[in-house]
Amino acid sequence: MDRRDYLGQSMMTAAVLPARAAYLIRTGSRTGFRRAVQEASTRWGGMTEPILAVPDNGEIPDEPRETVAAAKVEAAVNVDVDEALAQRAADALGLPCVPIAKIDQAGAARFTCHPLHVNPPVQPSTLPVVAVNGAPLWQVAAAGLLSEDQAEELRPTALAVRPGQPDEYGRNQMYGATHLQSTIAQFGEHRTNAIGSLPAVVWITDPDDIEDCVAFWNARALRPVTRPGMPMLLLPTGEVQHWLGLTQQLAGMLARPAEFAPDVMLLSRNVPQEHLHEIAEILELQRTDAEVKISEKFPTPALRQPPFTYRTGLDPRPWLLRDREYGVPTSFDVHVFTGDTSTLRFTSPVHFHTQGSWALVRLWGSPLDGLPRRDCVASLVEPNAQWRRDSIQLHTRAQNDYTFALTVPTLAQATEAVLEEASVRHALSDKGKLGVALQAQADIAALLEPGVYETVIALTTPRSKELLKELRKIKAEGTDDAAQLVELASTWGGRAERRYRPTMKLDLPPQRASEAAERLCELGWAERGVETNCAQCGVRTFHPFEQTQRRPVCPGCSSPSRYETTADGLSVFYRLDSFVDRASDQGLLPHLLVIAALTKKEPNSYFLPGIDLWFTDQTRGEADVFGLYGGRVLSGEVKTSASQFTNEQLTHDIALSTRLGVDIHLLAAVDTVPQTIREQTAKLCSDAGLDLLVLDKSELRRS
């Protein structure tokens, strides 16, 4: 294949988004929480950046782990945790650790911008509120935090802010009129499985309760951004009863489509239940103990009506821990060349009002299909690129028009990159070399056609392995029958000529045998011919049709001979091409049969039919099949008989797949794989963290 292989014009999609972080603070640290919120308040997407309280032992509990995983952040930022503990926590989360002092200078967390760069101008009458130094903790969590100097710097700009009255920090959350909510302008999910509408969350906290403020912050960080179907509101104890008109404003927020019940989840970590019920009475909410109901019918035109209902003791996390992919998307056309540079041009779906900041760009589309989601492959696309699920992520400057020169590697190049990362050295095995050559000659998918594989096996010339097998069989039977040994010697002794047979000896129904033999001729894997049986010297000889003569002569003794006939006329014989014959004798055909079946299942795949591997500890390995299966790395073993999969063999094979870091372990046999072997292999793969794919006769042979 020419290195610059033009695939044509394809549709791709790009998403533009900020790099986001999770902040690490000491458990109970109000100073750390304020500093984290202050940083998030100066970052695009900051409202969706979680804050994790790290205990003294550095162990991250399950709940914050799940929060970080769902938030899809790029880095952990250490606010006030001991450096060693912060690194330990970041490692447990699978994230790089960045000191907060360097958040804008280095690392993955750097690639974002100030909300000023993406926010449209606001009218003076609707300036959002923001907490300033000394504000109660609940106001900080509800509206964000800026120092007085930071707030003053924004006043002449499009992102002007102001400190508010206590009740404004509560009310303005309902209207999106807090500074913190402005950090998610031009930000959203391009894919999510979030439920459309859910009960609202009204979170109650004591004004300076750090645990409740962190819990609310993280719940809101996971709320869907593009379609916020779960309104969230943080309110303090001891104040809401003095806020005139709050009940009516809350009722306006709760007048939503009747797709769920109750209307409100009234939540708190530390406020006693009796106080929650008192606040609910002030807000004119009606208590219910009914189960939560979410309608599957969408949309429902009718609106919820007062009295609005509430429940305490609920956990919103099952609705918040939903899968999502962040970024505002746009689609564009691109002319794609595999193995060489393709130029991508598109207008940013996010409009940046100022230049000089940073952002992330994620790209996906059919040109990237089939590539394994490994960073060693992403670096073939662009040296500093990374995979984010099915997207290639680039770190770049924030621009309104993007141009990227990227390389779309071939599947062969991607396979090579994966092998280079997994081993010190690798090379095609002897079988692999033969298999690659055969794959280049013809479409191996023909092996899946009825009778084709069986015909190749039937026409394969018996050689030493088969002779040894027959001798062992005679020995096992304990017989020294001379006639049997003479017959065996006659069949094998000195045999150099390739086997040839008529279709009637292919152990297939006549019509299928003829079709399969002709298919092999069409592929160039076999040839047709006739046979002479010399009456003088007794030598039988195959003559390809193009070498036949009007008066045949024995090639052995040069005596006149004749072509074999039947009652129906001339007998036609078939013989494998010498290269195919050798490959089949070496046991390669099962490998190619399996590769054909895998490629049929996942056409966007690529496989090597045998590789030798060397590792750093001087050990070696050999895989029968290695390659890319629909974008996932696969390795495994192929046997003619499933009985060869002993416990020792299975343990060895799965250990090799584990060492290669594959996603899927393959177990394949030409005959039927018993259920016991399937279950044993599945257990070993599960313990190793591998998916298992089993192929056997039911999927490989259709004769």
- What separation lies between the terminal Cα atoms? 34 Å
What is the count of DSSP helices, taking H or I runs of 4+ residues? 23
How is the biggest beta sheet arranged? 5 strands, antiparallel
What's the arrangement of strands in the largest beta sheet? Answer: 15-1-17-19-18
Shape: elongated
Number of strands: 34
Hey, roughly how much beta strand do the residues contain?
15-25%
> How large is the radius of gyration?
36 Å
Structural class: alpha/beta
Tell me the helix content. Answer: 25-40%
Question: How would you characterize the overall build of this protein?
Answer:
By secondary structure, this protein is α/β, with parallel strands linked by helices. The protein is 32% helix and 24% strand. The chain has 23 helices and 34 strands. A five-stranded antiparallel β-sheet has the order 15-1-17-19-18. A five-stranded parallel β-sheet has the order 8-7-10-13-11, sandwiched between helices. Helix 4 packs parallel to helix 8 (210-221) and helix 21 runs parallel beside helix 22 (675-688). The longest helix is centred in the last third of the chain and has 14 residues, at 464-477. The two termini are 34 Å apart.
